[in-house]
């Protein structure tokens, strides 16, 4: 199987043109693509990516988490003129704190994008700083940022 064939399949899967199973919804497709991305970064091309694979794995892992959270909360966005609201029809738990936690989860990808930008910026402009992404204290600091953002939200 060529790389072009795999790429075309992933694009069609993402756009909803191809279904993996007969009864697949967007949750399953999103989770499947994220798990496929996680698998590829960890096992297929991990030797080519270096430390960058951990950042990509964080994106894929959090996307799987968001897919599961979306399936459990069944979120509906209500927009009326200047009013923006979120309503959930949760499968297991009916709690407004669950809705708040789910909405706070959407701030985390923005923080991950900032960390991603920092990594790529340093790899081009300041390559001597890339080693910080291997430092345990720096990694703890980077992990703490999205957690604090989630809590503050």
Automatic annotation (TrEMBL):
<feature type="transmembrane region" description="Helical">
    <location>
        <begin position="134"/>
        <end position="152"/>
    </location>
</feature>
<feature type="transmembrane region" description="Helical">
    <location>
        <begin position="52"/>
        <end position="69"/>
    </location>
</feature>
<dbReference type="InterPro" id="IPR019428">
    <property type="entry name" value="7TM_GPCR_serpentine_rcpt_Str"/>
</dbReference>
<protein>
    <recommendedName>
        <fullName>G protein-coupled receptor</fullName>
    </recommendedName>
</protein>
<keyword id="KW-0472">Membrane</keyword>
<feature type="transmembrane region" description="Helical">
    <location>
        <begin position="100"/>
        <end position="122"/>
    </location>
</feature>
<keyword id="KW-0812">Transmembrane</keyword>
<keyword id="KW-1133">Transmembrane helix</keyword>
<dbReference type="Pfam" id="PF10326">
    <property type="entry name" value="7TM_GPCR_Str"/>
</dbReference>
<dbReference type="InterPro" id="IPR019423">
    <property type="entry name" value="7TM_GPCR_serpentine_rcpt_Srj"/>
</dbReference>
<feature type="transmembrane region" description="Helical">
    <location>
        <begin position="27"/>
        <end position="45"/>
    </location>
</feature>
């Amino acid at each position: 199987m060529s790389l072009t064939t795999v790429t075309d399949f992933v694009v069609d899967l993402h756009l909803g043109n191809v279904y993996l199973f007969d009864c697949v919804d967007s949750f399953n497709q999103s989770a499947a693509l994220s798990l496929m991305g996680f698998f590829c970064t960890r096992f297929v091309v991990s030797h080519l990516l270096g430390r960058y694979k951990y950042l990509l794995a964080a994106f894929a892992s959090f996307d799987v988490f968001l897919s599961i959270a979306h399936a459990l909360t069944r979120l509906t966005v209500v927009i009326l003129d200047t009013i923006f609201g979120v309503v959930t029809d949760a499968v297991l738990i009916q709690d407004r704190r669950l809705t708040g936690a789910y909405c706070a989860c959407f701030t985390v990808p923005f923080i991950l994008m900032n960390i991603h930008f920092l990594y790529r910026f340093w790899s081009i402009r300041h390559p001597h700083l890339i080693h910080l992404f291997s430092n345990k204290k720096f990694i703890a600091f980077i992990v703490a940022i999205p957690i604090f953002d989630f809590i503050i939200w």
